[in-house]
Amino acid sequence: PVPVFRRWLGSASPTSPAFAFDIDGVLLKGKRVIPQAKQALMRLTESSPPIPYILLTNGGGITEQRKAEQLSGLLDIEILPSQVIQGHSPMQSLVSQYGNKGVLVVGGDGRETQNVAKTYGFHRTLIPEDLHRWEPSIWPFKRTPTAAEDERVSYNLSDFDPARDAVASIMVFHDSRDWGTDIQVCLDVLTAKGGRVVGDRWESGLTQQVPIYFAAHDLVWSNEFPSPRLGQGGFKVALETLYSSLTGSELKCTVYGKPNRVTYEFAEKVLHAEARRLGLPDQPLHVHAVGDNPNSDIAGAKAFGWESYLVRTGIFKGPPGENDPNHPADHVVEHVDEAVLQVLSRPK
Ligand code: G3P
Ligand code: MG
């Protein structure tokens, strides 16, 4: 009922158009730019008045500042950090709960991801490599780092000493680069009494001791490879399956990112701020969401009442003229620029 109401309301009162673009499969394929991407964004910037847009990705592992710099370089167009929403961006709201508690940050390039958490205000974090360095037998199949690498993974025990301090939560910020270590360490922490990883945890009656948060749960995503790649959701399924095999109970997870409502609420606030930055009148936005993943981009947009466009440059590869059977988009388009042109050509 919500989307219908929102759309009906939208048509009855004046609205301004706005866009939320997915990144992987819509603007980029790995490090390669999708040919129509730059043109599509330029049209919005050059439109009079300009049309606000955000880049709404389930990816992450770097700061919004760095992501904006990377995208600006690749697309040759200025993207501001305030226009970038990654899977973990709305997790900043967890700082009030965990800012000064031990947080195990998982995924991406360890220290870089930890730095993202730090910029959000999580001050007592550790990464799975820290626990491996502290006690290599925690996952004996991981190669011991060389001296050069050791420097990179070194950490200060006074910040977080596993023998002394408790992990209060696990936050998976991005795709795991080392599923073996990460799954083992997450299982250890999840079942650690009071979040203390020291001691024998494999006793009967294991229960979840620590909450776990995921920045996204895309089973697959789209890069240069011809078929979709396993994403953070793949890691989540593997962890959940192992957790339930070991404990006999279901792992309770909180998930951010598309298609979850919390991310759309965050995104709509960011879009309104972007509209204000562009000097647009303060009125409701009619948001057009362009994505390649029916399960996240289209399902999420539809549930939130945004108009949805499914491109054929990423995960979705249905035959021409067909829509996704489970989460049909409002429009199926060849590429991102077709979506933008459709909106711009509508009578104002
Ligand atoms: O790791 C990135 C992937 O999960 C999805 O990215 O931009 O398609 O939401 P995106
Ligand atoms: Mg995508």
From TrEMBL:
What GO biological process term is on the record, naming one? Answer: glycerophospholipid biosynthetic process
Q: Provide a GO CC annotation, any one.
A: mitochondrion
- On the tree of life, the source organism's domain of life is Eukaryota
**Mind telling me which Pfam families this protein's record contains?**
Hydrolase_6 (PF13344), Hydrolase_like (PF13242)
What InterPro entries does the database record attribute to this sequence? CDP-alcohol_PTase-I, HAD-like_sf, HAD-SF_hydro_IIA, HAD-SF_hydro_IIA_CECR5, HAD_sf
NCBIfam families in the cross-refs: CECR5, HAD-SF-IIA
Q: What is this protein called?
A: HAD-like domain-containing protein
